[in-house]
């Protein structure tokens, strides 16, 4: 099992034609990649969908938090 306490790692993603950086722990990057693959989407497309969902929330969290929450609520677990 990987070190789940590894500090966040920054990666660039593109959302609606705009590049942004997101810092997530490797544990969450792995879950995000697995979720995107399971849905047949590129990671950028899944992040864009999560972003669209979060911005209409009553109290939208930051994007990194939204990704973590989405992964937790979708029941994703590491293989």
From TrEMBL:
Presence of the UniProt keyword Phosphoprotein in the record: no
Taxonomic superkingdom: Bacteria
All copies of domain Ribbon-helix-helix, residue ranges: 8-72
Keywords of the record: Transferase
GO molecular function, one term: transferase activity
A Pfam family recorded for this sequence: RHH_4
This protein's name: Aryl-sulfate sulfotransferase
Organism: Alteraurantiacibacter aestuarii
Species classification: Bacteria, Pseudomonadati, Pseudomonadota, Alphaproteobacteria, Sphingomonadales
């Amino acid at each position: 099992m990987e070190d789940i306490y590894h500090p966040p790692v920054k990666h660039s993603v593109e959302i609606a034609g705009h590049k942004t950086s997101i810092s997530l722990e490797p544990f969450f990057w792995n879950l995000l990649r697995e979720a995107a693959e399971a849905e047949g989407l590129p990671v950028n497309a899944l992040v864009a969908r999560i972003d669209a969902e979060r911005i209409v929330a009553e109290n939208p969290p930051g994007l990194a938090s939204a990704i973590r929450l989405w992964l937790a609520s979708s029941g994703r677990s590491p293989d």
